[in-house]
Amino acid sequence: MVAHAPFDPHRFQTAARHYAARPQYSPRLVARVAEATFLTGDDRLMDLGCGPGNLTLAFAPLVGSVVAVDPEPEMLSLAEAAAGEMRRRITLIQGSSNDLGPHFGTFKLVTIGRAFHWMDREDTLRRLDAVIVPEGAIALFDVEQVQSAETGWTTAYREIIERHADGKSTWHGPGVERDEAVLLASPFSRLERFSAIDRLIIDGETLVDRALSMSRTSPGRIGPDGVTALSAEIRGLVAKVGTDGKLVEVIESEALLAWRPEA
Q1: How far apart are CA 161 and CA 168, in angstroms?
Q2: 225 falls within a domain
Q3: Cα 198 to Cα 60, 178, 235, 246, 252, distances in angstroms
Q4: Cα(36)–Cα(128) distance, integer angstroms
Q5: What is the CATH number of the domain that holds 33?
Q6: What is the spatial distance between Cα 109 and Cα 60, in angstroms, rounded to a whole number?
Q7: Does the residue 231 lie in any domain?
Q8: How are strands ordered across the β-sheet holding 132-145?
Q9: Which residues are CB-contacts of 50 (< 8 A; sequence separation ≥ 6)?
């Protein structure tokens, strides 16, 4: 089994407009990562696989400039539209981890939000070694659902998504090394994890959009009929278990930080 999926620069083309529905990273977590990496207004940051710019926009006020990289033009358009007054601090580049090199300049921090598994991780870390300053770091961001008495609906929600997904995951599961193991074998082998947990109220349409933001259930993958069927099942679930069309979710947003041992 391969440790990364084949590169497809337009994998998220039709999913991009639904990305705003995905769980957001806690501002408390962003502040903690900035503190742990000693970010200042003079530093440069790269957001690799930036998507619509969630991390780009979260960190832009904390550094001098951000280079936001993504292979999908639609994602970059969304990031640009959301940037507002922060746009002057952000450089948007259409590209991927395969394009990394010294021509990007150097960075104090490279953030990767829910995208590392799409990359050739070993090659990406070798390339990042050439552009991260000696005291700099990598931060892998992720979001997980926390199970509680209020969030039992998440199991049924995942089952709906799996029923409608086009294809199965080829980069998760037995035989694929965890990110921690890959990092420990890389130049960035000093690891530390931070997280923040939030209780949120969401509605059914958010859950529909969230499902359509995923690569295997994006509109381009499952087609109009698939979108209609998937949406109907999710709305039915919310009608059955929700309260006035609302559900509770508990989200843990986390960051795995990696420095060089001597940093």
Answers
A1: 11
A2: no
A3: 23, 25, 24, 16, 7
A4: 19
A5: 3.40.50.150
A6: 12
A7: no
A8: 90-94, 65-70, 44-48, 107-113, 132-145, 246-259, 190-203
A9: 56, 68, 69, 70, 75, 76, 79, 92, 113
List beta partners, residue 202. Answer: 247
Which two structure tokens, joined as six digits, stand for 172? 């998760």
This model's pTM is above 0.85? yes
Domain interval for residue 44: 16-145+168-195+252-259
User: Quick check: is 122 in a domain?
Assistant: yes
Residues contacting residue 165 through CB under 8 Å, at least 6 positions apart: 214, 216, 217, 221, 222
Could you list the pLDDT tens digit for every one of the 263 residues in the chain?
A: 344 555 555 566 677 788 887 899 999 999 999 999 999 999 999 999 999 999 999 999 999 999 999 999 999 999 999 999 999 999 999 999 999 999 999 999 999 999 999 899 999 999 999 999 999 999 999 999 999 999 999 999 999 999 999 875 544 544 578 999 999 999 999 999 999 999 999 999 999 999 998 888 999 989 999 999 999 999 999 999 999 999 999 999 999 999 999 87
| Start-to-end CA span in the chain (Å) | 34
Distance CA 154, CA 19 (A): 18
For 82, the token pair is: 């959301």
How many domains are contained in the chain?
A: 1
**85 lies in some domain:** yes
